[in-house]
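quick one, four chains, predict together pls
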Amino acid sequence: MPSEKSPVNVFQNPSIVRAKEIIKNGISHRKTLILIGNCWVDYHGRAGSKLFPGERIVIMKEDGSLLVHRSTGYEPVNWQPPGCIFEANLKENVLEVKAIRRKPAETVVVYFDKLYLVSVLDLEDFGEFALHASEEDMQKAILTEPSLIEPGFKPVTYEKKVEPGFMDIYGIDSQGRFVVVEIKRKTAGKEAVLQLARYVESVKSMVNREVRGILVAPSIAKGVQRLLETLKLEFKALSPKKCAEILSKPEIKKLEEFL
Amino acid sequence: MPSEKSPVNVFQNPSIVRAKEIIKNGISHRKTLILIGNCWVDYHGRAGSKLFPGERIVIMKEDGSLLVHRSTGYEPVNWQPPGCIFEANLKENVLEVKAIRRKPAETVVVYFDKLYLVSVLDLEDFGEFALHASEEDMQKAILTEPSLIEPGFKPVTYEKKVEPGFMDIYGIDSQGRFVVVEIKRKTAGKEAVLQLARYVESVKSMVNREVRGILVAPSIAKGVQRLLETLKLEFKALSPKKCAEILSKPEIKKLEEFL
DNA sequence: GAGTGGATTTCGCAT
DNA sequence: ATGCGAAGTCCACTC
């Protein structure tokens, strides 16, 4: 019998009855559980699904999230986001693991008739997570280094609300013309262009004079180039990586002025 | 020593050296692996991230997908979709597990200094997965039972391409007027309305006469109701569940005519 | 609590 | 390969 204080307790080929006890205990102590065995799954809620028997990995986390993973695929085949209530019950030598969510009302039930492994985990994890090169990073980079757009560009505001939504950056060019900047961290598609067009139209109708629209992205989808030209919008190539590099320079401190 | 044919082989608290051997062997045999231990993670690719040390669950699947899960959250903190090449190497008593992707060029490296559990899996999973109440189900339900839209409605085509994209359903009402139907499986927001508006505009400009636009969804976002009216579009309440029920009736066979 | 938009979105389908 | 849109998307943030 492994010590109760080990971060990982493992039970191999437990009987269904034994598994139920271990899992019930794990749930009541808010442990993270890993179950591997032969199972089938029903889901009812926003949609509904039925997964027929097979061997899978089930993870029940401390925060009430549930994942059912097959041996292929990035995504779980069934799941439930955090906040579920877990239940484990025995019915005719079948173990039922339920994850119940209130809003929206949803249930995932996993039925096991054979468990190869039940593991009870107590993981200590306080490590920080830092992500770079997001769209937000691109915005910050442009705000600290407006010449990335073009010489003489001066940001006025960012995340400014106009009727259709929020403009990423709004500013003035070297000629004093108004400029709306729309940022995308990956290849810009039709949607990005139409979004920018709506912002430009909206600003134009308010100020009643010329407004430039500049789409900033690492690249632009092929068919969309024409749409961009038709709408008299402009494109400026800029990659999230380049932006991340700029932000990693000492001058990031300039940013603080904006916050 | 567990049999090589067991679907689940478990190694508890292996040394780093031993773990490397097990993992290398698992990779070369295309097994699914579960690693639990103290690790830190670097990611470089479309974006970049750094995860500082902590105890986590790592899954390496047969198809080359990688998941790094913390003890909370539905989503993995780091990951790589299927198609990666895995490597396991030892550097100064630290185990490096690498997942390398070619297109886009990306790398996730997980560094372990302590492993509590290494499990090598050989899961048999041929169970079918069936999902109900998707947007596609709603489309099918309307095609088999057009009166769901309104009495006298007759679908003409579906997934028909017009300039802005694909119309979900296109048909004719009891008065002979053209109708564009846009389907959403959940509360319709601004985007859905604008999408429908573009389709209606596009068809109108082609046929040069009145075209109705009907948004089909379980409900409509509050502020969006006004937008809908402004654009002279209509709304028809219909839930994916109701559609799924209709499809579960024996008459589904009518559907085959469409396929 | 609802609405809005981003995401290392992933995934599937069509061109 | 690329483009496009859905997803049981999830998630963070605002109102």
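Chain A has a mean pLDDT of 92.
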